[in-house]
UniProtKB/TrEMBL annotation:
Source species taxonomy: Bacteria, Pseudomonadati, Verrucomicrobiota, Verrucomicrobiia, Verrucomicrobiales
InterPro entries reported for this sequence: PUA-like_sf
Classification via SUPFAM superfamilies: PUA domain-like
Domain of life of the source: Bacteria
Full protein name: Uncharacterized protein
Length: 212
């Protein structure tokens, strides 16, 4: 094969792959749009997310309840939309966490948040921590730049914010990922909290040792 023929073949493959990717994105978008409408998220085709400590690429959604993702080897999985949120916090992409209530923060101090996510077969594990340094009680719909920043930093849609009101926006920063995920059973928990819960000093010490 001559150099010219190889170049033509290469260009043909590039164009073929581009069209195939565009077709897949177009086909996946309605399912992703439906999932985003239900969960108030902003997931998109081709977006990189972290789930169970690994990087995946979003390739679609299923039944309005599951994200379809694939790893770098092309193996496909499904995961819950909220399982991608701890990864967003640990990557620094998500700086506000929206919840219906908030822990008590002593003046001038912070709260350590330990983050967990669901793994294979629904197994829950703690994957890292961050600092919660403030919270804002949101009773009314923000507007203008404040709304734009909240949408961006909370990784949600305007519709989700409107539907979720009233809520607390937790300001989180300084994320640290654990070297290896720690099962909830390692700190004596049999199930995850409904939203959040306080840990005992002994439980926190176990997790801090895993960071050493």
């Amino acid at each position: 094969m001559s150099p010219e023929e190889r170049e033509r073949k290469r260009r043909w493959m590039v164009e073929y792959n581009r069209r195939r990717e565009a077709s897949a994105a177009k086909a996946a978008q309605p399912d992703l749009a439906a999932l985003n409408a239900i969960y108030g998220t902003r997931f998109r085709y081709g977006q990189q997310v972290t789930v169970t400590g690994r990087r995946y690429t979003i390739i679609g959604a299923k039944w309005g309840a599951w994200l379809r993702v694939k790893n770098k080897d092309g193996k496909k999985f499904v995961c819950r939309p909220y399982d991608a949120y701890p990864g967003k916090i640990l990557s620094g992409e998500k700086g506000w966490e929206l919840r219906k209530n908030a822990p008590c923060i002593p003046r001038g101090e912070h709260v350590t948040l330990w983050l967990y996510e669901s793994g294979k077969d629904g197994e829950r594990a703690i994957i890292g921590k961050c600092r919660m340094v403030s919270y804002v009680r949101m009773l009314y719909m923000p507007s203008g730049q404040a709304l734009e920043l909240l949408i961006k930093d909370a990784c949600v849609t305007e519709e989700h914010i409107r539907a979720y009101l009233p809520f607390y926006a937790w300001g989180v920063q300084d994320p640290v990922r654990l070297p290896a995920a720690v099962p909830l059973s390692a700190i004596g928990m049999t199930r995850p909290p409904q939203s959040w819960q306080y840990l005992t000093p002994e439980q926190a010490e176990i997790l801090e040792r895993r960071l050493a």
